[in-house]
Amino acid sequence: MSLHLISHALCPYVQRAAISLIEKGVTFERTDIDLSNKPDWFLAISPLGKTPVLVVDGAPIFESAVILEYLEDTQPHALHPHDALDRARHRAWIEFGSAVLNDIAGFYSAPDDKALEAEVAALRAKFLRLDAELVEGPWFDGHRFSLVDVVFGPVFRYFDVFAAIGEFGVFTGLARVRAWRHELERRVSVKNAVSEDYPTLLRDFIRRRNSYLSQIMQTGGPKKTVTQVRSADRRSLDLVLSGRSTEPDV
Ligand SMILES: N[C@@H](CCC(=O)N[C@@H](CS)C(=O)NCC(=O)O)C(=O)O
User: Ligand 1 centroid to 51 CA: how many Å?
Assistant: First the structure.
């Protein structure tokens, strides 16, 4: 069987497929395309004009969640739980991961400080939910690396670049999420799902957005924004957290 992943260097949905393929030890070819100048051959096989597409023996499959399911159906080293109810729960959290990616896009595209604060609050609310969901590490499902981990590897990767731009307080005090993030950034499959120049490419991409985050990149960290976010967030934080971290993070 020949597997060819049609990819974009920064796309988090592509990374899902790449991480799964690496975890499963499957050989695959990968071709990056320019999404601002989509080749005709790509448009011919991608009905929504989006990456990823996985071409299986010449047959294209689109939508990352579907690609992940296909790889579960056909390749070794299951990343989904065996039990149907557990699988349903994992699928739901994969969907949640896509909602987090939408908030991340909102964050780096926010036109002004108010919009950025709203996106930080939305992200933080989602990670608070996740923190409550995580029970024992190192992975989402305890000792078993699963597709939910596959999906959150690319999510957390964004925040390594955001952290170099400013302190946004998204993960402050969320000990379980932070521990999970730390494990995921060290996982070989997660690391190898992007090229070494990913941080540079992402910074260039953010700079070109002409968003509030692009401005912060040029003028320095958003100290005022963080203070405002923290005070707005304090009540929900106090309800949820038993310990408080003062470490700077994103
Ligand atoms: N629901 C899709 C989302 C894929 C997606 O949004 N891909 C982006 C890049 S990360 C894309 O190709 N965007 C190009 C466009 O929308 O024109 C999936 O899970 O595969």
Answer: 5
